Amino acid sequence: MSNLRDVLIKPYITEKTTAMMADNKYTFIVPLTANKIEIRQAVEQIFKVKVLDVSTIRVLGKTKRMGKHLGKRSDFKKAIVKLAPGERIEFFEGV
Questions:
Q1: Is 90 part of any domain?
Q2: CA separation for the pair 21, 38 (Å, rounded)
Q3: Which NCBIfam families match (predicted)?
Q4: Distance between CA atoms of residues 59 and 41, nearest Å
Q5: N or C: which end of the chain has fewer CB within 10 A?
Q6: What burial letters (b/e) apply to 27-52, b meaning 16+ CB within 10 Å?
């Protein structure tokens, strides 16, 4: 990726990911082409935190039906980032 701000598309906030924040794990949606090294560098530089581990999950889009027409949602990639003890991302506070 040419720009590290292009690596993190948006935060992924659900009930499960909110519970994971207690364990210092934060979840982001990233491009399908992003790798763990790029994700680590982007989080460390943008949020000024120390990253211990990065896990990635590729989520396949669901097939949806509208009457007799079939469609498909887009595939996406999730990145779960574990921060060092004592580190926090202020962006997620108050969610």
A1: no
A2: 21
A3: PRK05738.1-3, PRK05738.2-4, PRK05738.3-2
A4: 22
A5: C
A6: bbebeeebeeebbbebbeeebebebe
Close Cβ partners of 90 (under 8 Å, ≥ 6 residues apart): 47
Query: Residue 20 in 3-state DSSP?
Result: helix
pLDDT at 5: 84
Q: CB–CB of 69/78 below 8 Å?
A: no
By CB neighbour count within 10 A (0-12 exposed, 13-18 middle, 19+ buried), where does 59 fall?
middle
Residue 75 sits in a domain whose CATH number is 3.30.70.330
Helix (H) or strand (E) holding 16: helix 15-20
| Domains in the chain, number | 1
pTM, 2 dp: 0.86
